[in-house]
């Protein structure tokens, strides 16, 4: 039976201090092995005790060493992204949330620091990623069972390894799972400048599939259009450009799309629906505008459109660990070959709260923020 202990959590930013009874590993799946001669180094972590606005409830703290059991691997984290789902978990609005108190973060990559006595196939110095993703990656050292870690090629850029699972995998699965697309077919999507949107463009192009892309009206939209076209986008429109009765007049020689992706909602979702061909399918995977998807009766009756939803968490949770890792390796291979890339901004861990402000949209549109430890 594990022995409970008191630990002191020392705030690095601000004057917050707190002593409370904690499980030795608040950042793992709940398995505790208190009797072990091997321990992790102390860890610096982004920690929260209650749900609420991420910029007010998160604290950067120091955690004491924890035991490394026989089947455990201690990983020195190298990079981890700030995803919208991370923010939603901290806010308490995401459907799946770790029990509190907890360390934030869900995706990331690191280097093996030490391994338990029964671990085979992993050694200190190996590059590994959390696969499938699991809570507690926003800290300098993470201890989890060996099954949580996936060894990857040392030549992989760490910022891509840290971010490949949530967004690129979402793009890949949506392209593969809903419509049997052939070379020459087309996809329409809103939120095209997002990481998923950028990946959709490149993965589609590799398959000979055209993309019709919709972006928000904002300063710098012309530059955004050019960047997407360099990635392989066929056409890019702002929402205001499509404020016409017949959007299909913009297609020129492109085929009517059979598949559409919506991560915005509201009017942007309606624009995706307008482009779809008879019997087309729109897949919703986000709702950045926080507005509902509104569908006309005629779209259902006369166009026979289908509306689907995609949630990567559910897909990953369906006992698909090996399948997931095969696809991750495929995506990382494309990255190493220069065939898949996307915008990111690396932020030193000691500037975490500045990166969080950018991720929260306080400074306008920003690239994906990736914490570098």
TrEMBL record:
Residue ranges annotated for the Enoyl reductase (ER) domain, each copy included: 52-371
GO molecular function: enoyl-[acyl-carrier-protein] reductase (NADPH) activity
InterPro entries with a match to the protein in the record: ADH-like_C (IPR013149), ADH-like_N (IPR013154), ER (IPR020843), GroES-like_sf (IPR011032), Mito_Enoyl-ACP_Reductase (IPR051034), NAD(P)-bd_dom_sf (IPR036291)
Predominant location: mitochondrion
Keywords, in A-Z order: Fatty acid biosynthesis, Fatty acid metabolism, Lipid biosynthesis, Lipid metabolism, Mitochondrion, NADP, Oxidoreductase, Transit peptide
UniProt family annotation: Belongs to the zinc-containing alcohol dehydrogenase family. Quinone oxidoreductase subfamily.
Protein name in UniProt: Enoyl-[acyl-carrier-protein] reductase, mitochondrial
Lineage, opening ranks: Eukaryota, Viridiplantae, Streptophyta, Embryophyta, Tracheophyta
């Amino acid at each position: 039976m594990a022995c409970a202990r008191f630990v002191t959590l020392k705030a690095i930013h601000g004057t917050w201090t707190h002593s409370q009874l904690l499980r030795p590993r608040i950042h793992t799946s709940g398995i505790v092995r208190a009797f072990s001669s091997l321990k992790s180094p102390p860890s610096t972590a982004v920690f929260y005790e209650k749900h609420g606005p991420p910029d007010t409830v998160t604290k950067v703290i120091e955690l004491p060493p924890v035991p490394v059991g026989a089947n455990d691997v201690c990983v020195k984290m190298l990079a981890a992204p700030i995803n919208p789902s991370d923010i939603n978990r901290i806010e308490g609005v995401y459907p799946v949330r770790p029990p509190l108190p907890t360390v934030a973060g869900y995706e990331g990559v690191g280097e093996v620091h030490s391994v338990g006595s029964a671990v085979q196939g992993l050694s200190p110095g190996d590059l590994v990623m959390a696969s499938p993703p699991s809570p507690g990656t926003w800290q300098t050292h993470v201890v989890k069972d060996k099954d949580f870690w996936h060894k990857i090629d040392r030549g992989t850029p760490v910022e891509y390894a840290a971010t490949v699972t949530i967004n690129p995998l979402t793009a890949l699965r949506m392209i593969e799972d809903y419509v049997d697309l052939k070379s020459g077919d087309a996809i329409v999507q809103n939120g095209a400048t997002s990481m998923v949107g950028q990946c959709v463009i490149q993965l589609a192009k590799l398959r000979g599939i055209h993309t019709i892309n919709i972006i928000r009206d904002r300063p710098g939209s012309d530059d955004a259009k050019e960047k997407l076209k360099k990635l392989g986008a066929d056409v890019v429109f702002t929402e205001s450009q499509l404020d016409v009765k017949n959007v299909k007049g913009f297609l020129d020689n492109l085929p009517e799309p059979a598949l559409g992706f919506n991560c915005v909602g509201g009017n942007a979702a309606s624009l995706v629906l307008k482009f779809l061909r008879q019997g087309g399918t729109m897949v919703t995977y986000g709702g950045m505008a926080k507005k509902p998807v509104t569908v006309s009766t005629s779209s259902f009756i006369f166009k026979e459109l289908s509306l689907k939803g995609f949630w990567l968490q559910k897909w990953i949770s369906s006992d698909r660990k090996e399948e997931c890792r095969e696809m991750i390796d495929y995506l990382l291979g494309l990255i190493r070959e220069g065939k898949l890339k996307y915008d990111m901004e690396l932020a030193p861990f000691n500037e975490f709260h500045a990166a969080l402000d950018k991720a929260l949209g306080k400074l306008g549109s920003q690239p994906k923020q990736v914490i570098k430890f």
